[in-house]
Amino acid sequence: MIDGPAGFSYWTWYELLDVGCAQNGGVICDSAKGLYNFQDYSPQYMQGLSFDLGVVVPTPIQSITFSPNPVQGGTSVTGTVTLSKAAKIDTRIDLSSNSQNATVLPSVTVKQGQTSATFQVLTNTNGIATGGSSVATIQAFSAQNYQAQLTIQNVNNASLTLSSTSVEPGQSVTGTVGLTGTVAVDTVVPLDSNSPNVTVPASVTVKAGQSSATFPIATNATGLAYGAKAVAIVTAGSAQSQLTVTRVGLTSLTFSPRTLVLGKPATGTVTRATPAPVDTDIPLSSNNARVAVPPKVTIPKGQTSATFPLSSSALGPYRRAVATVYAANVQTGFPLQGFAGVSVGFNQACALKANGTLTCWGNNDAGQLNVAGLSGVTQASLGIYHSCASKNDGTVACLGDRTDNQTSVPAGLSGVVQLDAGSWATCASKSDGTVACWGAPNYGQLNVPAGLSGVAEVDTGKFHVCALIWNGTVTCWADNFYGQANVPAGLSGVTQLSAGDIHNCALKNDGTVACWGDNSQGELNVPAGLSGVTQVSAGGGSTCALKGDGTVVCWGDNSQGQLNVPAGLAGVVQLSVGGQGSCAVKVDGTVVCWGQGSVIPPAGLNLLGS
């Protein structure tokens, strides 16, 4: 507005910017041309003035929306005001509500270059009957008035019931919201869960004329240990229910056959106590790189068990080792065995050939090497005056001196997967993880600890015995005069074990070696920095370690040249240390021995031949 007599020196100017165009007080807005006409109302100075002014006309409002809509009273709603096109300048939109149940701020600003802006609407249920609703009109003003309606509900949950209150991860549950009476309009009930193991939709709608509605509930095992449970509170409006999710573990993990032989298939079985309510994945892993297992096995819905394949294609043909497979909350170890190898006794040796027969040489004064006709052999072990062999049917045959019952195999012994002959006694580990011993009882070698189970390998010394357990720990018993039964505190991660006369050495899963017992001949003096070991063998007062590069390192008693590893010896895949000598099998199937002359093998011996 411009007022004052025309031709005089004073004028008053009011800008009309972005607030609409007035059509009274002498001002008329032509938004198409931006032309304003001003008139002086002084009757004595009637003059017409016109100006072309660059006036910014506000952009009209296109819509107002709310999310959610309808809404449960007492919650906050997000409103969005949208213009018909981008604002040329920061544009203030005045806001108001006609309802006591909805409160808005006085204004919201659409920024220059933007087409919309959001604002919050605070709601309440004051004066709204239970199960009823109220409609609030929210008004926005810029170039013109614009109105939108928001429905505010007062939902009273009579109940929230679940189809099941205790499930396993992966099971779905149905929730039912019940209201007090039917509702006149579609009524939105907000949903929530306080646990990451239970998820629900954001809301469920009770349709007009209905009094209830159902919704799905999903469960998962995120962060939930086997045997653990998560207790979730599911909320629907003002009602709550409790849902427990339990991750059920396994009861057992078994293998068939109990010993995994190179090149032959094997099967693992996982078992749970009750049928799986849904297809249930069980994660699998192995602590031994030579054993391959799939990443998981699935127990089908309604079943209690499932099987999976495993193999040891990377295991050398002559080695023995122990692997542990982990499945969910259980673990089980088992022996790995190549198809051939060499075993050295006090002053004799036997070689197991690929065809399951034995070739023996050295001292045979008690007939311990009379192996003619013996077949189907999976392992041989020699003491001083006796020898024993395990067969592919799980039985055992022993030869030699009977003075101390060294060859008196217990009647009915079966399921043997590994054995070791000591000086005057022999012990065998069975497929069920137990141990059987026979021979001289004078130092308690036959007194297997009560309840001993989970044994993967047993090793017999002169008058003591040690067992490697599936979990990588070691248990020893019988003679302990030299501390040979005192397993070092904290020893764990053991994958293979060997007993000498009065000392023991264990190979750990990090490729290092730990020894204990007598050290009068340096038996415990493991070379500093020794690592990368794949097999350890102790015999008499000596020990040798086979490294991953196929070389051999020895320490301890050298009275018979047991430590004199032939220069340049390489390509070794298995070795055995006895009382007076040592032997190694090379990758080409040939055998190399050193020490006392009686352990030197026959010329031309090759374990890969017939």
Helix content: under 10%
**What is the arithmetic mean of pLDDT?**
87
Q: CATH homologous superfamily of the largest domain - what is it?
A: Regulator of chromosome condensation 1/beta-lactamase-inhibitor protein II
The CATH architecture designation of the largest domain is 7 Propeller
Would you state the CATH class of the largest domain?
Mainly Beta
Beta-strand percentage? over 45%
Strand order in space, largest sheet: 7-14-13-9-11
Radius of gyration: 44 Å
Give me the CATH fold name of the largest domain.
Answer: Methylamine Dehydrogenase, Chain H
What overall form do the CA principal axes indicate?
Answer: elongated
Q: Report, as a whole number of angstroms, the end-to-end distance.
A: 119 Å
Category by helix and strand content: mainly beta
Mind describing the biggest β-sheet?
Answer: 5 strands, mixed
Low-confidence stretches: 1-54
Domains (count)? 5
Tell me what the structure shows.
The chain is elongated and about 115 Å long. The chain has a 5-stranded mixed sheet, with no helix packed on it. 0% of the residues lie in helices and 47% in strands. A hairpin with a 3-residue loop joins β38 and β39 (425-430). Residues 1-54 have low confidence and may be disordered. It has 610 residues and is mostly beta strands. The chain contains no helices and 52 strands. The chain folds into 5 domains: 2-52, no CATH class; 61-153, Sandwich (Immunoglobulin-like), CATH 2.60.40.10; 157-246, Immunoglobulins (Immunoglobulin-like); 252-336, Immunoglobulin-like (Sandwich); 340-599, Regulator of chromosome condensation 1/beta-lactamase-inhibitor protein II (Methylamine Dehydrogenase, Chain H, 7 Propeller), CATH 2.130.10.
